[in-house]
Amino acid sequence: MTLAHYILRSLVFYRRTHFGVFLGALLAAAILTGSLGVGDSVRFSLRQIALARLGATNVALGPGEHFFRESLAAQIAAQTPCATAPLLLLRGTVALPDGSARANNVQIVGVDERFWKMGGSADVLATAGEDGFVANDRLASHLGLTPGDTVIVRVEEPSALSRDAPLSGAADTSVAMRLRLHSVAGPNQFGRFGLQSNQVPQSTVFLPLGMLQKQLKKSGRANALLVDRIDAAMANAAVRKAWTLGDLDLELRDLPGGSELRTERVFLEPAIATAALKTAPDARGVLTYLVNEIRLGERATPYSMVTAFDSKLREDEIAINAWLAEDLGAKPGDTLCLRYYVVADNRRILEKTSRFKVHSILPLEGADASWMPPFPGLADVENCRDWQPGVPMDMSRIRPKDEAYWKQYRGTPKAFLSLKAGQAIWANRFGDLTAIRYSQKSGVIERELRKPIDPVKAGLAFQPVRELALQASAGAQDFGQLFLGFSFFLVIAALLLMAMLFVFSLQQRTTETGLLLALGFGARRVRRLLLWEGSLLAGLGVLAGTAAGSLYARLALRGLSTIWQRAVHLSEFSYHIEPTTLAIGALSSLGSALLATWLAARGQARRPAAELLASGAEMETSIVRGGRWSGALGGLAVAGALATLAFGGRSADAFFSAGALLLCAGIAGSHALLVQLARTTKTAGGIAAIGMRGAARRRGRSLTTVAVLAAGVFMVVAVGAFREDPLAHANERRSGTGGFAAYAQSTLPVYEALPDSEVVALRVKTGDDASCLNLNRPQQPGFLGVHPEQLAARKAFTFIEGASGWEALQQAQPDGAVPAIGDEATIRWALGKSAGETLSCTDERGNAFRVRIVGVIANSILQGSLIISEPDFVQRFPEQSGSRAFLVDALSSNTKEIFQSRGAEIVPAWRRLAEFQSVESSYIGIFEALGGLGLLLGSAGLGIVVLRNVFERRNELALLLAVGFSPRTVRWLILSEHWFLIALGVAIGGISAAVAVLPSILSPGIHASPVGPLATLGLLALLGGAWSWLAASLALRGPLLDALHNE
Amino acid sequence: METSSPTLPLLELRNVCKSYRSEGGGALDVLKNVSHTITCGESLAILGPSGCGKSTLLHLIGALDLPTSGQVLLEGVDLRTLDERGLALLRNRRIGFVFQLHHLLPQCTVLENVLLPTLADPQARPGAEVAQRAEHLLERVGLAERRHHRPAQLSGGERQRTALVRALINEPPLLLADEPTGSLDRAAAESLGELLMELNRENHVTLLVATHSPELARRMSRICQIRDGALEPFNA
Lengths: 1047, 236
Fold this sequence. Notes:
Oligomer: heterodimer
Number of helices of chain B: 7
Number of strands of chain B: 10
Distance between the termini of chain B: 39 Å
Low-confidence stretches of chain B: none
C-alpha cells in the first residue's frame, strides 16, 4: 500500500462523481487548446493563401509605370539561377455581352507559359485559341460563367505619360476585347494569383501575353515580372546589368550633328534629366510645348509648338520663324502674347498668358520637326483636325495655312524661348524638359548615360513579395487570442463547474478526510493527497481535452467559414496546430484546472477531525457570518455606480463601468440576502418561502450559481447591445458615412474635373487593404489623395484622436514626414499605430518616405487606406493619374455617365459602412454564441447543484412526504428554492446590463431592438427552469421514504 | 518502538474544560474541570448518557480536539505544546482510535484499510515489516481470509474488527474506542469486547472505552462516568 495506490483506488472508486470533474477539465482544455488552434489555423490558412497566390514567386517587379522589354525576363534568368515570368498586369472590367452582369476592378493578366510554370500548373491557356481566356473561379462564379461563354473585357490603353500631365492625349482610351471563356482556373491552377496581401482572391482574367500586348499596342513589353528563388538584391543587381534605356521609356536617337534623349512620357523625369545633363559637358535641355495662340495685336496664330532651350535669348525674348513672322506681321521688337494651358492641382485646366519681345526672325530653311516630343494625339496624327491633345481645342480656328504648315513641317516650332523662360511657365510635376540634346552620336552617349542612371531607383525595383506576404500572414489578426477572449466565459464556466463538482466529490468524502486526520495525517498532507487526486483527474481531463481541442477548433473554423464569414471574408480554412501551441494550450489548461482543483481542495481538512467525522457530508456551519460585510460592500458598489454616472459624463464607458459595479453590488447583495434568510426566525409563510430559505443553507453554492448566471447574462446582453446600426445618423456629416450619400470606386481612372458640389474625388494608390476586411497585417498600405479643404468645408467625419480637422493634412511636418489621417480601424487595428506615430512607406519609385499619423477618425467609409493631401499624393505617386474613389453627395446624369464609362461601382455610403460594421457584428455574434454556450453550461451547473442539494436532503424530503406533503408540493419546494436563485441571477445580470447599455438604447437613431437581449434572458430562464425541474424530478424518483429507514 | 513504563501515568488530565459557543452568544460547558490519571496497561470504561461529553473527552485525549482550558498530558507531553504536525505525529504513533462507525474507506480492501495509518508518516517503517504485522493482526482477529475484501463485503462485526486492527497497526500504547459496539449485534459486540481485553492483556495496550454498554464496561479494570461535565468513578 502506497499513497499512489490510495490515490488510484480513490480515482477508480469515485469514478462516477469524478466523471463530471474530468468532463469539466476536458471541456476547459478543449476550448483553450481549440481557441489557440483557431489562431494557428487562420495563420496557416492565410499563409497557404499567400503561397497559393504567389506560386514559386519570390520577388516581383511592378506592376509599375514602366513598360519594360519582355526580354528583360530572359536576361535576368540567364544571369541568375532563377526562373522568370513577364506579365502585363492591369485593371479592367468584365461584362456579359448583353450587359446583364458586370465585374468591376478585375485583375487582367497577360501571361505566357512561364507564368503557369511559376504557379506549378499546366499552361491552361495553351489551347485557348485567339479569343480564348481563362477566368479564375471567383470571377466565373461572380458572373456565372461556364466555358464557351463570351464576355467583353475592357482595359485602359496604357500611356507612358500620366493622364494628369498637360497634353497627355485623349482621356478615354480604353480597349475592349470580346473573348470566349476557355476554362476556369481554381486554386490549384494558379487561379488565385495576386501580388496584394489579402485573403480574398481577386477576380482575374488570364489572357495570352502576346494577344494583350497587341491589343494594348505594347508589343514585346511587360509591366510586371515574377522571379523565383533569388532575393530582391540579386534580382535588382541583375536589372542593373541588363537594363536598356527603353526599359525606362527613354529613347536616344541620332540627329544631324548629334543625338537627343527623349521619352515616351514626353517630360523627362527630373532625376533622369539631372543625370542625363551631367553625362556630357555640352548637353542642352529642351522644353517644347503646345501654345494655344501667338498673338500680335489683332492677328493671331492658333496652336503652335514653341521650344525653349539654352540659347542667347534673354528671358523676355522670343525668336520666331519666318512663317510665324509673316503670319503675324511681326518684326524684331514687337511684343507677342502667348496663351497656353497649364494643369492646376485639381486637374482643372487653366489658360495662361505670357508676353515676349521678338528678338529675331529665323529662316524656315533647315526647319526641324524633331524638336516636338511625342505628344499623344499629336505626334502621330496626319491632320490638324485629328489632333487629340487632351485639352479643349477650337478646331474652327485652324486655318488652311495651319493645316498646310502641319503637313509640311509637322511639329516644327514656330518660336523659341530661353530655357529658363520656358521652364518658368511650363514646368510641371512630371518634368521641365522634353529632351536633352548632345553633340555626340547616340552610341557614345548611351554608354555614358547608363552610368549615372540607376534603373532600380527609376522604378525597376524588385520587391520581396513572398517575404512580405509571409510577414503579412504571420502578423495577421490573432484569432487565437480573439477566440480565447470570446470563449473566456465558456472556459470559466467549465472550470467553475469542474471545481464545483470536485468540491461536491470532496464533501461527499468529508468523513474520509476526518479519518485521515484522526489517523495521524497532517492537514496539509491530507490536502495534498486530495490535490494529487484532483490533479490526476484534471490531467486526464486536460489530456483528453487537448485532443478534443481539434474538434472545437474545427467547429469554430466551420462557423467562421459559414455563419460568421463576414468576420473573415474567407470560406476555406485548413485546420492546423503547431506543436508549441498544443503544448501551450495543454499546459495553460492544466494550470487552470490545477488552480480550480487547488481552490476546491484548499478548504478541505481545515475543520477538526472530530467535527468532520461527526458531520459526514453535512458541512454547514451553524454560525452565519459575513452578511454585514457583503451588505456594506454591495452598498459601496451601488454608491460607486451612482458616482460613476454622476461624474463620468454620459459616455458609454461610464455607463458600462456603472453596470459592472451594479453587477458586483448585486452579487454582494445576494450574499447579504442569503445570510439574512439564514438568520431569519420569522415563521415562513408558505412552501415557496421555505424553499427560498433553503437556498440560504448552502450559501456558497447558491452564491456561485447566482454569480455565474448574473455575470453571464451581463456579458451576453451588454456586448450584444454594442451592435451598431449603420443607418443611425447616416445623413449627418459627423457620422461614419461623412454624410455622403454614396461611395463610388471606378476601375479606370476618371480624369475629368467633377463638380465640387456633387463629388469629392479621391486619388487612389492601391496597396494592401488596411481595413478590417483584410485579415493580413498590411505591409504596404494604400493611400487616398484628397483636397483637405473639400472635406473640411463639409466638416465630414468625426475626429477622435490627434488633429480635430482635415486642415492638419496641409500642415508641414518639421521632419518632412507626410501628414496622414486614417480611420480608427485602419490606424489602430490594421497598422497598430496611433496619432503622432510614424510609419515608413514606399513611394512609386521604391523610395522610402515617412508618414506621420496626424489624426484618427471614427469608424467610417474611408477605412482601408491612409489619407494624405493631394499635393503630397502627387509628389509621392505622380503616375497615379486621375481619381478612382469618390465621396458622392449628389449624382448628376453627366457624372453618372462618366462613372459608368469607367466601370465605377456606386454603393450607398451606409451600405459600405455596414459592410465594415458587419465584421464587428460577426465578432459580437461569435461572442454571443460562445457566451450563450457558457450560459448553457452554467445552467447545466445549476441542474447539478439542484441534484446535489436534493440528494443531500433526501431524508428531509422523505420526512415531508411522511408527514403528508404530496410529491407535487415537495417538488414545488425544491423548484421554488432554485428558481429563486435563477431569478436573482437573471435579474442582477439583466438590470446591470441594462444600465451598461443605456446610452446605446437612448441614442436617437439607434434602432436597438430589445428582442435579442430579452430572448437571451428568456431562454436562460427557461433552460435554468428546465434543468431544475429535470433534476428535481430525477431526485424525487424512486422510493424516497426508504431514506428514512436508512437513517 | 517506544514503550511506556507500567508504573508511570500514561495519561493525565488536569482541570480539563471544554465548552462550545452557541449562536446566541452563550457558552455550552460540556466538560468541567476534569482531572484524571490513567496508567499504562489500564483499561477504563467511560459511561454516561448521550450528549454527556464521552466522545468529546475521547477526542480531547485523542488529540482530535483541544480543550478550552486545562491540560491533557500523554506520556508527560502536554498536547497544547504541540503544533499541528506534532499532534498528527502523536495521533499516528501513540494513539489508536476505534469509532462507533468504523469509517473504513470503501475504495480500499481490508488490508489496505489496515495499512492506511502507515502512509501518514513518510519516515515510517519498511513496508514488508508493516505488511507482516497487518497480516498477523488480521489473522488474530479472524480476518485473514477476508484481507482482500472490500468493506462493503464485510459484516458489521468484521468491519469493526478491521477498524480495530487499523488502530493497532502502529502499535500505539493508547487505544481509544468510542462506542465500538454501538452498531453491532450482541454476538459481534461480545466478540469485539473479548478481543479488546485480549489486546489489553497481551499487548499491554492501555484501553479507554466510551460506551453505553454495561457488558462491555464490566470487562474493564475501572469504570468511570461523566455526570454534569465531571468525570467520576461509577458506582453501580
